[in-house]
Design goal:
Blueprint (H helix, E strand, L loop, with lengths): L1 E5 L4 H12 L3 E6 L6 H7 L3 E4 L12 E4 L8 H8 L4 E3 H10 L3 E6 L4 H14 L5 E3 L11 E2 L2 E2 L4 E2 L2 E5 L4 E3 L2 E4 L8 E4 L13 H13 L6 E5 L3 H8 L6 E4 L5 E5 L4 E6 L2 E7 L5 H16 L4 H8 L10 E6 L2 E6 L4 H15 L4 E5 L4 H4 L4 H7 L5 E5 L8 H4 L7 E4 L2 H11 L5 E5 L7 H10 L1
Parallel strand pairs: 1-2, 1-4, 2-3, 4-5, 6-11, 6-14, 7-11, 14-15, 15-16, 21-25, 22-23, 22-25, 23-24
Antiparallel strand pairs: 7-8, 9-10, 12-13, 17-18, 18-19, 20-21
Helix pairs in contact: 5-8, 5-9, 6-7, 8-9, 10-12, 14-15
Length: 455
């Protein structure tokens, strides 16, 4: 089958393209922004990319167009597809029909931690020699790629297990259900639930409704692994649940008790399962680990082996990824773009480095951030930083200065990258820990700042 993917350079659609190509399909695609690293990853797999959405692409005559949720009505190629009655489907629907139907799907949902938890779970199954397939919204450093089919060489067959990051964002312009309702998992992790994606959800209740649609399709012989501390998830499950539940973060379920030197004692139903020594910081990562351990146990992996696997877990690129150490200045790249994620990232770093100075660099880039939904919570989320630089590029529809005024002389707002990089390099001194937080490319700031610090 020849499929042509609209919006192919997105994290999800790019991963889907790799999976389709590995399955033997001919894959082409287009996007408005064809750029590395996804463009490089796709071209390395001999997937032809086209810049833009011109209607002439219908002359490629694929068997099917697969539509990403970045595509809207008015898109020239989409309009041509509709006008000529050509076959099309969404990415999640194609994935469900062609790759997930006969697999044991382990889906990781939640506002925060989906990518890291998915990577942990995939790595545990890999360490247990189960060779899982996966589609993750980031690049796990243990694997070096964001998606694979999963193949067991000695059995000459695909692994039955497939780990997927289960996003609540909408499926496509013609299917406003959340992506995750297509995946039909046997094992589901519910990490946490807060208001997000204000561009598509009017309120938290609307997101809860989608999460309950997800809960409704998990079978009786499956398992729901849920955050026992999260009141919103409890409310979702109270609306109806037909599947066994295991909780984490509570005494009656899975717990991680900090010991010393990054060591955690892991308990299940108050019985010690083992101790985990690793490099990841913060309570949020401890919670992610508990979720992954519970899900892996459901798939048949002994908890002792799962704990051993996590000692070798290398995290995901752009999740507190240490980019470099220059003159004893540590520079990290982090994906945090929601106040909760910003706060947990900085709190985890503070616990690790103690009184050493932390400098936060923030790009308020997500659609929800640009709408100003979190402006009242933003300053509080940055309290653990000794100094914050915030980038305001003119696309923000609210007054950042007023929102961050309570930070006093600990905040600088810049309207150009050049001025901000100059200010950061003047401030930086040996011993600093600098955290760059954005869910996008930040205009190449990472490499520009590293170059400036080296100079």
């Amino acid at each position: 089958m020849h499929i042509h993917i609209l919006g192919i350079c997105g994290t999800f659609m790019g991963g889907l393209a790799l999976l389709a190509r590995a399955s033997g399909h001919t894959v082409t695609g287009c996007d408005a922004n064809v750029y590395p690293p996804m463009s490089t990853q796709l071209r390395d797999q001999h997937i032809d990319l086209i810049e833009g959405y011109d209607a002439e692409q219908i002359k490629l005559k694929p068997d099917l167009f697969v539509i990403g949720n970045v595509v809207t009505r008015g898109n020239p190629l989409m309009e041509a597809i509709l006008d000529t009655h050509l076959p099309y489907t969404s990415g999640p629907q194609w994935l469900a029909q062609h790759l997930l139907r006969d697999r044991w799907v382990l889906a990781v949902a939640g506002t925060h931690g989906k990518t890291t938890t998915s990577a942990m779970l995939a790595w545990i199954l890999e360490y247990a020699e189960l060779s899982p397939g996966f589609l993750i919204g980031g690049v796990p450093e243990n694997f070096g790629l964001s998606a694979r089919l999963g193949y067991i060489q000695q059995e000459q067959a695909h692994s039955p297990f497939f780990v997927i990051e289960a996003d609540e964002y909408d499926t496509a312009f013609f299917d406003k259900r959340s992506k995750f309702v297509h995946y039909q998992p046997k094992t589901a992790i519910l990490n946490n639930l807060e208001f997000d994606h204000a561009d598509i959800f009017p309120d938290l209740a609307a997101i809860e409704r989608q999460f309950h649609h997800f809960v409704r399709i998990i079978p009786r012989n499956g398992l729901i692994v849920t955050n026992g501390q999260d009141a919103t998830l409890k409310h979702v499950l109270q609306q109806g649940c037909w599947t066994p539940i295991e909780q984490f973060g509570v005494e009656q379920g899975w717990q991680a008790i900090p010991q010393h030197d990054q060591i955690l004692a892991i308990y299940f139903h108050e019985k010690l399962q083992g101790t985990l020594q690793w490099e990841l910081m913060g309570e949020h990562n401890s919670m992610n680990a508990l979720a992954a351990l519970a899900a892996a146990r459901h798939a048949g992996v002994p908890t002792s082996l799962s704990i051993e696997a996590l000692t070798y877990f290398k995290n995901v690129k752009r999740r507190m990824e240490l980019r470099d150490v220059i003159n004893n200045i540590h520079i990290y790249d982090d994906f945090a773009h929601h106040p909760t994620a910003i706060q947990t990232t900085l709190t985890g770093l503070r616990e690790k480095v103690g009184p050493t100075r932390i400098v936060a660099i923030l790009e308020p880039r997500s659609n929800t951030m640009k709408l100003g939904v979190w402006q009242d919570k933003l300053a509080a989320s940055l309290q653990q930083a000794d100094y914050t630089f915030c980038y305001a590029d003119g696309q923000i529809g609210w007054d950042i200065s007023s929102a961050l005024a309570t930070l006093g002389n600990k905040i600088e707002i810049h309207h150009t990258l050049t001025s901000m990089i100059d200010a950061i390099t003047r401030l930086a001194q040996p011993g600093d820990h600098i955290v760059i937080m954005s869910n996008g490319g930040f205009g190449g700031l990472h490499d520009k700042l590293l170059a400036a610090l080296r100079e």
